[in-house]
Structure formats: structure tokens, C-alpha cells
Amino acid sequence: MRPQVSLSGAHGSPTDRRLSALARHLADAHSAFSMDSQNANQTISPSPTAAFNGDSVFANVVRAPEDPILGVTVAYNKDTSPIKLNLGVGAYRTEEGKPLILNVVRRAEQMLVNDQSRVKEYLPIIGLADFNKLSAKLIFGADSPAIQENRVTTVQGLSGTGSLRVGAEFLAKHYHQRTIYIPQPTWGNHPKIFTIAGLSVKTYRYYDPSTRGLHFQGLLEDLGSAPTGAIVLLHACAHNPTGVDPTLEQWEQIRKLMRSKGLLPFFDSAYQGFASGSLDADAQAVRIFVADGGECLAAQSYAKNMGLYGERVGALSIVCRTADVASKVESQLKLVIRPMYSNPPIHGASIVATILKDRDMFHEWTIELKAMADRIITMRQKLFDALSSRGTPGDWSHIIKQIGMFTFTGLNTEQVAFMTKEYHIYMTSDGRISMAGLSSKTVPHLADAIHAAVTRIV
Ligand code: KET
């Protein structure tokens, strides 16, 4: 038995600290004899002496830069100008510039609060069963043969990011190919999520700055020369940051190429319903891959389409060849999740399940979702018109051609810095603006800023 020594004085007076160090020394001396060294090591802080001479044991920690997307909000919050405008993070705002809680979400929350039978017990490791089933149906379609044949395993995740991470960890552990191809450019967190999970990240050509459209030839060439079995990250719809998606015919060509080379599709679906306003239309790319009977992964997020950003609710589905494989895969997903965060939170998933399983609520959601998508489309037209009326040099038709939450403006880093400094407009340095953060009132201010930036800084 280890001696019962109190270390509670570690943060008290110098005498307390000395006594506590002595106690620790005695305890450690004891454990060296009575415990195996691995267990003993877990109970000792690595270098207690540094704390006693006044230096922090973390003194050599280097300050990290802010996140390229979330750091924009940090900078925006520090700005005291009344005209400041945050077009950085992809978060929906109303015409009044306020965050939006959907009516159907409020209604679902009220029902949950009023339901006295609800408890706050732990969910199973893979989350809320109803939520998982309904999420799979939402992305693959209610009549998907893969679901009917029990070939899909779905686990609840910590929004899109957490679901991608669980998928990445699973692949790094159990898939024979460790290389993942991500589009160039892509959401800034993708390379970090996959690298940290142990995958090796390569890029494929996606966007052509000269046409401001898809670099389809480059995409086919790069995936065509990828090693057999490589994983390929695909944005299910509303590609971030470019707002450029393949057409259905192009998706079909991508599918054929990938299947012929045994490349494994990993879909990131963070904007289902936001691109076209239709949940089914925005899931088409995923569904054509599932329809051929092949395997794939899909990470879903309810952050944007249900406005549940901070609730962190999403799902990871893995479509397998057989029900037997799917159930084995699920057993291994549990081993990935349990030591990471044990099990997911209950509230957000309950909101989603409440809405998805009720016909009326589901319908109400689709109407509110369409209204958000439509407001964004209106902002595109208004910004395009405002630049046209100012005679701003350049072709700005990509603003109305691109889809989803973002416009990839083509503005360079210097122009972005100028707009932030002179006009208090905040956006990511790659020239991406969140159209969802714009309103009729703020369009003229943005158009003035873009006009000034492109005429003064070439
Ligand atoms: N995938 C993509 C493509 C994506 O744009 C985001 C978020 C996510 C996944 C993850 O979202 P989650 O909140 O974990 O469900 N993008 C916006 C917010 C962010 O960067 O975190 C953005 O690009 O602004």
C-alpha cells in the first residue's frame, strides 16, 4: 500500500510546499519499491523543482498563432469601431446581423424541457440510437438499400470536426492505405485533422483561379495518379472555401475513376441544404457513390443547417459491403471514441432526433433552411449589383455563380488587410467572405471596401 500522504498544501505557503515536496519524496521512495515503475511514474509530476525556483515548467512553450478562421472572430471582437463587420467564420446571421435560432429548434427544445421522463444519463459510446438512424437516412436517403441491408454504421460525433476526426483515427488504425488526398484549396482544419490522426496528407487540384471554376482536368489527373486504395476527401456540396462544386455529370466521372482505382471516398457534409436549399439535392453526390454498392465514409454536421453550432452535433457513417463488416467496424469505432471523449453529449442530438422523426417538424425545418439558403443567394445578387453599379474593375460574376455560404472573392492578402484596416471588415486572408454574415444594410459598405481595395492595391 502507498502511504496516505496529503499533497493538498502544494499551492499554499512555502512551508506547505516544502512539506508537500517531502511527502511526495517519501511517497515516491515507497512506490519505487512497491509498485511497478510505470504506475509509479504516473503519480509523479515530471520536474517539481522548476516550480520551486520560480520558473514555470512551461516557460519554453512557444506562443501559437491564432486559428486562421476562428482567429478572425477574435480580432473582430477586439475592434471597437461601430461599422465593423465579421465575414470570417461561416455562421449564419439574420438581416439584422444577429445569430439565428430556428423556430423549429426552439419548439423541439421546449418539448424536451417539458418532458419530465427525460434524464441526463450517459449516452452509449456511439450516441443516441434514433439520432444515428435518422442522420443516415438524411444523407443517404430514406430508401437507401445500404441502410435497408444494414451495411451502414453510424456513430454520433462532436459536430463535423469530431466526426471527421473519429473517421480519420479509425482509418489510420484499420485501413491499409494511410494517404489521404484533400482538395487544393480546402477548409483549413482538414490537413490538421488528418495529419494529427496519423494519415499522410496529399492534395489534388480542385480550383482554377484563372477561370474561378473547377480544375476538372487537374482533379482527374491527380486522382488518376493517386496510389490504389488512397483515401479521397470530397466536399459533399458547397465546397469550402471556393463555393465551386462539380456538376452531377462530373461527379459521375469522378465516381467511375475512383471506383476503378479502388480509391476510398470520405465525404465531408457540413452544408447539406445550404447549397441549393434542398436537403436531397445537396446529398446527390454522396448518394451516387452509395448507389453503386461500394464503400465510403461520410461526416455530417448540424452546425449550419440546423444552426446548432455550439451544440456540437454531427455523425460519422461508414458504408460497408456487408452487414457483418459494418458491425465489426462499429465495434472498433467504439474503441476509438471511448478513450477520446467516452460518449457524446445528449442535448443537441435529442433536438435533431425530435425534429427528424416528426413529419411536421421536419417540414418546418426544410422551410426555415430554405429561407436561410435563399437569403444568402439574395446577398450574392445584391453584392454583385452593388459592384456593377460602382463600376468596380474586374469580372465579379463568380459571386452569383458560386454556391453555399462563401464567396471566394479572388481578393489577395494585401487587399484583405487593407479592407480590415480601413473599413473594419473581417474575413479570412485567402479572400473568402461568409455571405451568411452579410445583410442588405451592410452590402454597400462591403462594396465600397472591395472597390477601394481593387482600385488602390493591385
Ligand atoms: N467541414 C467543413 C467543410 C467546414 O467548413 C466546417 C466548418 C466543418 C467541417 C466543421 O464544422 P463543425 O462546426 O465542426 O460542424 N467551417 C466553418 C467554421 C470553422 O472553421 O470551424 C468555417 O469554415 O468558417
UniProtKB/TrEMBL annotation:
Its cofactor is pyridoxal 5'-phosphate. PROSITE patterns: AA_TRANSFER_CLASS_1 (PS00105). CDD domains: AAT_like. Keywords: Aminotransferase, Pyridoxal phosphate, Transferase. One of its GO terms (cellular component) is mitochondrion. Pfam families: Aminotran_1_2. It catalyses: L-aspartate + 2-oxoglutarate = oxaloacetate + L-glutamate. Residues 83-450 form the Aminotransferase class I/classII large domain. It is an enzyme of class 2 (transferase). InterPro entries: Aminotransferase_I/II_large, Asp_trans, NHTrfase_class1_PyrdxlP-BS, PyrdxlP-dep_Trfase, PyrdxlP-dep_Trfase_major, PyrdxlP-dep_Trfase_small. One of its GO terms (biological process) is amino acid metabolic process. GO terms for molecular function: L-aspartate:2-oxoglutarate aminotransferase activity; pyridoxal phosphate binding. PANTHER family: ASPARTATE AMINOTRANSFERASE (PTHR11879), ASPARTATE AMINOTRANSFERASE, MITOCHONDRIAL (PTHR11879:SF22). Homodimer. In eukaryotes there are cytoplasmic, mitochondrial and chloroplastic isozymes. Belongs to the class-I pyridoxal-phosphate-dependent aminotransferase family. This is Aspartate aminotransferase. It comes from Protea cynaroides.
